Amino acid sequence: MRVLVVEDEQLLADAVATGLRREAMAVDVVYDGAAALERIGVNDYDVVVLDRDLPVVHGDDVCRKIVELGMPTRVLMLTASGDVSDRVEGLELGADDYLPKPFAFTELIARVRALGRRTTVPLPPVLERAGIKLDPNRREVFREGREIQLAPKEFAVLEVLMRSEGAVVSAEQLLEKAWDENTDPFTNVVRVTVMTLRRKLGEPPVIVTVPGSGYRI
């Protein structure tokens, strides 16, 4: 899942991004509304965590733009105000969910994951394919009953491949979904991660390389 965090309190923004990355999400961070509109115009995000009171361009205007463009991106709006009227106003702008500050980080993660599921074709909470079971919420992976410990990027790549339900996923698509924009697209990070993931999943191999196209399970 790829997430954009838009929050002018930099320490909070960076802390949220770090926490989401630990949950195997690809996260970009900006600190004002203008930068958010720029990123949205370039990258496809599953979820935008959007502070309402932003400098340069207000969060309300960023939300309106996402709705105006008809993007499948889901918006989780954050605000320091917990008034019901403010929550209603934010939802009427087109936000998909609303979370007042201060918030519990576990709740933020749960809400981001719930919104992320709504951007794709509905799938069961636990993904199963080729003898592999992947639980995105618990961040657990099992193969034939054996638990497999994966690093966050390995987990993210496996989740993208599992969600594709047998379709080929290109290296570019894996970069887009599992890494943030600071990753050099010309590195071999995808190939190395897939190799490590194959080794951890064990025999027989379940990740197939499709020459010139990408990977599939």
From TrEMBL:
Transit peptide in keyword set: no
Transport found in the keyword field: no
Any matching Pfam family: Response_reg
Ranges where the OmpR/PhoB-type domain occurs: 124-217
Modification sites for 4-aspartylphosphate: 51
UniProt-listed InterPro entries: CheY-like_superfamily, OmpR/PhoB-type_DNA-bd, Sig_transdc_resp-reg_receiver, WalR-like, WH-like_DNA-bd_sf
Keywords: DNA-binding, Phosphoprotein, Transcription, Transcription regulation, Two-component regulatory system
Boundaries of every Response regulatory domain copy: 2-116
Annotated protein name in UniProt: Transcriptional regulatory protein CutR
Source organism (scientific name): Streptomyces pacificus
Phylogenetic lineage: Bacteria, Bacillati, Actinomycetota, Actinomycetes, Kitasatosporales
